[in-house]
Structures
1.
Amino acid sequence: MYIILLALLAVVILWFVLKPSWAPKPPDTSQWTDKASQMTKQATTRATEFSKQAITRTGEVSKQAATKAGEVSKQVTSQATQASKQATSQAGQMYQGLRGQFKLRSDSGNLAKQFKQWVAGSSLSKRDELYATLPASADGFAIWLNEAKDQELEQFTRRVAQFCASLNFDIAWLIDPKVGRDPALKKAVEDAVLLYSLAAWRSGNVQQEVQSFLAYREWRANPNHHKEYGQRLHQVLIQQGLVTCPPELYLAPEQERLAQAASAIRKVADENPAAFNTALHQVVAKPIEPETPAAEQPVPVEKTASAAV
């Protein structure tokens, strides 16, 4: 029995020592490592190419989106500007024509009471700042008058002439020698014309603010009929950081977006009127330029540890 066991042990030892040619050989792991390295490099190359293609497509889409955003912004700005001008035109024609005359007659009683109330509460004698700036305003008006174009000067002179006619005297009285013989009359006419001219000139300098106010009043009275103006105003408030737009709102229905924007606009107008007025004046000033996409650069593909094998 022991002899058989010793013989088997001897055969096993000879097997490992001599290793006959027909015995199976261990696998060559170097070939597997080379193949794995090649496959990793191919995968990395393909990933890099795919990343570059994706970045290129993203850049093209971003540019197209920016272009469309710019076009939409310009269209909204143009529509908002037209709405503002229409509101100003309607205000300017309020008491003109036959219908305007009837309206003026019907409103004159309330207007008189309101005007009297305003004068009583305005402390006109204490408006030192206004009166102190009159000399500078007169100088500015004279400079503007000398530099005004012919058509602009004629239009302004017609306004002054109409004002004079409403007071039963002629603008030509300013240089009429006969009127000059009466110093009191001459001074009264000159003071009236000068004060009116300064008021008319200064009112022309605030037309943008007037247009902004009238357009906003029209929108606030009926936001659904002035959607473009509301969109433009909402854009300006977002740009100035006065309003934030939740991301989920972009996917909401149009009516919900309009309601949310209107609520945000009213909130800023009520809580921060100074900043709101600054933004309001920019609504018809110029279009908002869309943000330019950042320069597209290829994203480096991080190599794995196996790629270097």
2.
Amino acid sequence: MPKKKRNETPEEQSARFRAEAERLIEAGELSPTEAEVALDRLVQRSSLTPKVAP
């Protein structure tokens, strides 16, 4: 059975993302510089993607 989706506020999502990124950086699995570049690309792409109304 699939997991139930968690309803999180944007602030909770952001905090969870940051905590996971920090964990990966400390474990040596993620370069802070590469993470910054990847995040910039994602944000840039999302701003170019047309929004679809529900």
3.
Amino acid sequence: MANEELYQLTKDGFDQVRAEVNQRLDQMDVRLRTVENSISELRGKESTIEGMRNWITIVCATGAVIISIAVAIFK
């Protein structure tokens, strides 16, 4: 085997390894992107729930004030 043939064989082997590594990195990137999207969705849902709790508290407090005023006026 001549040096040029050995060089070409080695180069082809490194190219194949590089292609496999790139493919695996691309797969990991897709998986990590999926995880990031899922975490973002969960955080969005969590902040929505907190916002709804605040609105429920505000509505209940406003209702209590209205009822208190109505009771004070009609008594």
4.
Amino acid sequence: MQNPFESGHIKNYLLLYASIVVIMILFFVASTLFNDIRDVKKKVFHTEKKKSENSVEEDEESTPKFKLLDTSY
């Protein structure tokens, strides 16, 4: 295997690295130029609870479905 510093191949490696960096910079510039920034409307959520007419349904929902054990093991 040849030493790239002695055989002159290091120039090719540096050119490859520089070309990759230039391509990354070009993609970054292109993405910032063609990115349309639009105004985002603020979303408002309704936080008020609707009251149901039947209070019995609310009582059934508040009772747990499972009964816990009296003692822990």
